[in-house]
# Entry
Amino acid sequence: MAERLLVEAVNDALHVEMERDPSVLVMGEDVGVLGGVFRATAGLHDRFGAQRCISTPLAEAGIVGTAIGLCMAGWRPVCELQYDAFGYPALDQLITHVGRYRWRTRGKLSFPLTIRMPYGGGVRAPELHEDSPETYYVHTPGVKVAIPSTPADAKGLLAAAIRDPDPVVVLEPKLHYRSSKEEVPDGEYLVPLGKARRAREGSDVTLVAYGSMVPVAGRAADALAGEASVEVLDLRTLKPLDEEALLASVAKTGRVVVVQEAPRVCGFAAEVAAVLAEKAIFDLQGPVVRVTGYDVPYPYWQIEDAYMPSVERVADAARRVLAAS
Amino acid sequence: MSRVLPAEGGLRRVIGDGVATPDGEVEGLGSDELLALYRNLVLLRTYDERSLVYHRQGRVGTYAIFWNHEAMQAGSAFALEPRDWIFPSYRESAIGLLRGIPASTVLSWWRGHPAGWWNPEEYGVASICVPIGTHVPHAVGFAWGSRLKGEDRVAIVYFGDGATSEGSFHEAATFAGVMAAPAILFCNNNQWAISTPVSRQTAAAALADKASGYGMPGVRVDGGDVLAVYEATREAVERARAGEGPTLIEAVTYRAAPHATADDPSIYIDPARVEEERENECVGRYERYLARLGVLTDSLASEIKQEALELMRQGIAEAEAEPPADVSLVFEHAYANPPPTQAHDLAELRRTLGG
# Structure
């Protein structure tokens, strides 16, 4: 075990998986000599050479589009998209081909590509460097989506994504790339896709969160100490969703607040609320409340903290749910 | 990249007209090869003409006609080795027939039946790409990836003049140049994207001129001249195999049929120009060339046509004999490891269907 930052855990996963499987290659803008703008790919170019750690032209649809062809030629590409919102030009390839090509060949060809990108706000960056685009990916059939919140999960989920036979999008909370170190297992380490993690055990209310909202939910739980016993469920994988873990937690607490950084309408919190309405209505003792970003463009960074779901908003939502029952 | 010159201006031609323009020849093609190429042309022509009939009879759905595009498809594919991959658009839906894909499979594709979805690895033919130009990066990635693995494979990707306006074409051509991918970007410029003429796609004098911007040679060839297409593609394949990178081939023809069965070109096209093209269509041109050479007789031509017609009769019979697809195929193959919700969805579907 070594203590690693989240971005170092990502880097470690890439080293381990490229070492283990010679068909894994990393491609993206500036991923080569520079090691990526966040240094997530640092050292790969020296270790594995320019043919397996490839700095590409500045063309996101070209990156994901050629990665499809690389899969057909027997490679297992890991594409880095430099920032969340820089992934939008690649949505064309993702929606029209990445999620469909396996189906189109009736399962004869696999497209085991991984698309990873830093996502989310709170980093005082220019416009379109702080988006939370997970819904676009989750809504695309044929594609899986994972979002780690801790260094260990960042390593294990990315390794699982790389080994998965289906395309997986991994969104990494850039706010926490270097926020704290954690023990991360050395060598091969997998966190299975589709398994949520109980980040904190409690019995009165469940805060459902993922990615950069998990620490916010944890601090809200601290703020509620003495008022309620709070459970925090880190979903880790949005698709496939670990419904079992979600329903088990709600069966225990009967109260749910879902937290997401993305805008509200048709966000992933709405999906969680819908699943609960369909499958857990009789376990619920109050309304399912969402705490989300607002339905506006992500704001100018001087006032971005007003947009981000805060500890106060999450705690306030939990108190409302607790008061309603 | 000093090899990259401005694109060729004139159209390369081999076939003459038997009067003012003399016939040329392609080195290395004997009568056996010339006839094999003819069989391929006739096969594609017959597929296309029969498909239109089947559509009118309600036996296939909406169909993208490729009448007078056969020379571009057959000529270029003839320059490939079996290990090379073909990335077709919907306009090349039947090009896989030249690789042994059964006619029933392609007909099933146009019938919307799952039997029409094939395994690309079996034939070296990628799935038919419907959205315009989005498959160009796949071919480039495949060619580049094959080269990275040290495999001697070339990829050819077909698209129309309209596709050159798409960002995916631009990004793919950029990658192809930078990665020196052994890829052939084959543009069938039939001068129409449904009702939009090529003059509304680009202000460039020729689509092949775009090639120099990507650091690759641009070649212009008469798309109705199967031998010129073959020769230009063979050169591009040789360049690709020699590690000299990609080539953009612009094959120029004129769309002498509707875009697809749902299109009505009488609203926008000049019928006199269409008639002129139909009189000079590519299969007839090649037939007359072969006749002048003394390679093709009427009886042989008739025999080849009958074979192709028989293949289509069998193909449609087999396609129509496919049992109805089970509804499980709605779900199957979307994921290698499907989410647990899928089994539940299928069970619910079966229950509501009463099955």
Notes: Chain B touches chain A through 46 residues (CB under 8 Å).
